[in-house]
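HUMAN: Forgive my ignorance: could you write out one protein's sequence and backbone structure tokens?

ASSISTANT:
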Amino acid sequence: MEKFEGQAMLKGQSQIWKYMFNFADSMALRCAVELRISDIIHSHGHPITLSQIAASIDSSSEVDISCLARILRLLVRNKIFTATLQSDSSDTVYGLTPSSMWLLHGAELTLAPMLLMETHQWLMSPWHQLRACVKEGGIAFEKAHGSEIWDFASNNPEFNRIFNDGMGCTAKIVTRAIISGYKDGFDCIGSLVDVGGGIGTVMIEIVKAYSHIKGINFDLPHVVATAPEYDGVSHVGGDMFKAIPKADAVFMKWILHDWNDEDCVKILKNCRKAIPEKTGKLIIAEVVLQPDGEGLFDNTGLAFDLLMIAHSSGGKERTEPEWKKLLVDGGFPRYKIIKIPSLLSIIEAYPN
């Protein structure tokens, strides 16, 4: 057995303390979002004092400024906010950073709803089932709540709202990254089908940016029944495990990570049937895991993989070799990975 001594052991101890209390970072962030601290500072247009923040918090009783200060101290340490001592007074003023700009409720692009969703007790409790999943198998969410996540959402309107808000805000962020980072990819496409496109949010944005594309938004019949009309986009109901509408190209965003390998191959084979053999292509927007990577989102990708254990029914994030095997088994022997400014990458795959 290898022995570690001195500074190495002390560093190891410090890491365990850090990871033990990483939840405190998440809870402090949640508190900031619930109190709308970013919004309060933003509404003033400049850094403000602790008293000004406290005075703007919506509360039926007096705000505990000491508690607020301690929470902000950690968030400043984590570079979520800035704290600057005024030269002409003894007051400290708190300002926004690029991180806290992502916590604004009213912003077009915000992660606030996703943060509230992922730190909610309903979605935190399945994480306590990881040990049971290792020892017994099964689905963590079902172990925690007695039903899988989709059934739980259909029977719990409040959870459904929180979940949809979280998914909606990330969809906007990812869609913006896809359109800006995959500029040339849509140029030569005449028709595009978005498989699992929900109510058409992504397809509408793509058609807005590329008006020459005939968009087909494809999802389950009851989903597309509520989709808004948009010129250039048609909504088609169906089942991706049975057949997919024909188009020049197929697009899927964060779909395959919800399914096991066997189901993914079934979906991919149907994608293969939907596009032309010589000119067709498949465009997948998914996480490509880099277990030893040093990129901005590589740690988050690994966390997302565990998130799939906690919240999905057999889904997983995948490494490039795992994606390659899936694509080959599904009828796509050629592919390339395109980096975009996002947690996700574009996987462009071809049937020959």
User: Anything to note?
Assistant: The chain has a mean pLDDT of 95.
